[in-house]
Design a protein that fits this description.
339 residues; alpha+beta; 7-stranded antiparallel sheet; 5-stranded mixed sheet; 17% helix; elongated; binds 2-oxoglutaric acid; binds fe (ii) ion; AlkB-like
C-alpha cells in the first residue's frame, strides 16, 4: 500500500474534524515532523502527523479533539507561523482519516501438519506426481464447470447443494470417475486411518479458486458427510487456517452446525488458530478432532505471508475433495423416491 492520499475539504464537505490538511508544510520545505508536531501540539493532544501525499510539502495533523483542530486552524491558517520559521501555512479540514494502525492478524504458518497439534490432521506432500497432476487437471478441464459467484465447481458421485449445504440424494451422479481411482486407492492405504478397509469415498467436489479467492470458515456438514475428508491441492498453493472455539466440548454428534460462518472471529478471544501451507500435489486428511472440532478456512488472499516470505497464489488452485456421504441420507433419499 502506498502513502494514503488525503485531500483538503471543499465547499460542501462537512466541516469540523480532528484532522487538518496542512499545505506548504513538511520536510520538502525544510520543516521536520518533530517541528510540525511541536508547533501544532501547542493547541492540544495530537494523534500524529502524517504525510498527506508523496510531495513532502503537505501533511495531515491529527488531533484527538475537533476543538483543538479548530483552534489551530484559526490561529495558523494563512499567517506566517513563528514556530515554523515564519512560513505561511494553508490549512483546511482533512476529508479522509489518517490510517489506523493495522492489526497484524497473521499467525505463523507451518509446513508440517504435525506441528499444528491438531489430532487427526495429516498433510501428505507429493501425494501425486507432476504428471498425474497434469492428467487430473486435464480430465476436469475436459468436463463442464459450474460457476459459483467466485469460484467454479464440479461434483461427482452426488451433487452438493450450496443452498441447503447438503448433498442432493435425488441427484446421484453415479460412480466416481475412473481418473481418481488411483488417488482413492492411495488414500485408503494410508496407515494412520481407523478402519480404512470399510471406508468408501463416494462424493467428490472439485473446486477451482482464482487468485484472491478463498473459503469461509466452516466445518463440513456433519449430517451430509461421514468421517474422513481428504483434499488434494493441485496447480497452485494456498494456506489453510484452522480455528477452534473453546466454549463447549467436542461432541461430533451434537455439533451439527454446518458451514458455520464466523463473522468476526478475530474479536473472539477464546479461539485457537493454526495455519498450514498446502503445496500443490499435497493431500490433506481431516479426521477425528481435525474434522469435527476445528473450522477450516482459506484466507481470501492473492499473496500468502508464509512467515517472512510472500508466496503468490498461482493463476488458479484446484482442489479435489473426497468425502463419504452419510448413509442415513441415502436411506432417506431412497424413501423419498419410493413415497
Ligand atoms: O479447497 C480445499 O482444499 C478445501 C475445500 C473444502 O473445505 C470444502 O469443499 O469443504
Ligand atoms: Fe471443507
Amino acid at each position: 500500500m502506498g502513502v494514503p492520499r488525503f485531500r483538503r475539504s471543499k465547499a460542501g464537505d462537512a466541516q469540523l474534524s480532528p484532522n487538518l490538511y496542512v499545505a506548504n508544510c513538511g520536510p520538502a520545505v525544510g520543516l521536520s515532523y518533530e517541528d510540525i508536531q511541536s508547533a501544532f501540539g501547542s493547541f492540544g493532544n495530537l494523534r500524529g502527523v502524517y504525510a498527506a501525499d508523496e510531495s513532502g510539502a503537505r501533511v495531515i495533523v491529527s488531533y484527538v479533539e475537533d476543538t483543538c483542530a479548530e483552534a489551530a486552524l484559526k490561529a495558523l491558517n494563512g499567517r506566517p507561523c513563528p514556530l515554523l520559521g515564519g512560513r505561511s501555512l494553508h490549512i483546511r479540514y482533512s476529508v479522509l482519516q489518517p490510517p489506523t494502525p493495522q492489526v497484524n492478524n497473521s499467525i505463523p504458518v507451518s509446513f508440517e501438519a504435525s506441528e499444528l497439534n491438531i489430532p487427526g490432521l495429516y498433510l501428505l506432500r507429493d501425494f501425486v506426481s507432476a504428471k498425474e497432476e497434469e492428467e487430473l487437471l486435464a480430465a476436469v478441464d475436459d468436463r463442464p464447470w459450474k460457476n459459483l459467484s467466485k469460484r467454479r465447481v464440479q461434483h461427482y458421485g452426488y451433487e452438493f447443494s450450496y443452498e441447503t449445504r447438503n448433498v442432493n440424494t435425488r441427484q446421484c451422479l453415479g460412480e466416481l470417475p475412473s481418473f481418481v481411482s488411483n488417488i482413492i486407492g492411495r488414500i485408503l492405504s494410508f496407515p494412520d486411518l481407523d478402519d480404512s478397509a470399510s471406508l468408501v469415498l463416494d462424493q467428490l467436489t472439485v473446486n477451482e479458486y482464482p487468485p484472491g479467492v478463498g473459503l469461509s470458515p466452516h466445518i463440513d456438514t456433519h449430517s451430509a458427510f461421514e468421517g474422513l475428508i481428504c483434499s488434494l491441492s493441485l496447480a497452485g498453493p494456498c494456506i489453510m487456517e484452522f480455528r477452534r472455539y473453546l466454549e463447549g466440548a467436542w461432541l461430533p454428534d451434537a455439533a451439527s452446525s454446518t458451514d458455520m460462518k464466523v463473522e468476526n472471529p478475530d474479536n473472539c478471544s477464546s479461539v485457537l488458530r493454526r495455519a498450514v501451507y498446502l503445496p500443490p500435489r499435497s493431500m490433506l486428511l481431516l479426521s477425528g478432532e481435525a474434522r469435527y472440532a476445528w473450522h477450516h478456512y482459506i484466507p481470501h488472499h492473492k499473496i500468502d505471508m508464509v512467515n517472512d516470505n510472500a508466496i503468490r497464489r498461482g493463476s488458479r488452485r484446484v482442489s479435489f475433495t473426497f468425502r463419504k456421504k452419510d448413509i442415513e441420507i441415502v436411506v432417506l433419499g431412497k424413501l423419498a423416491e419410493i413415497l
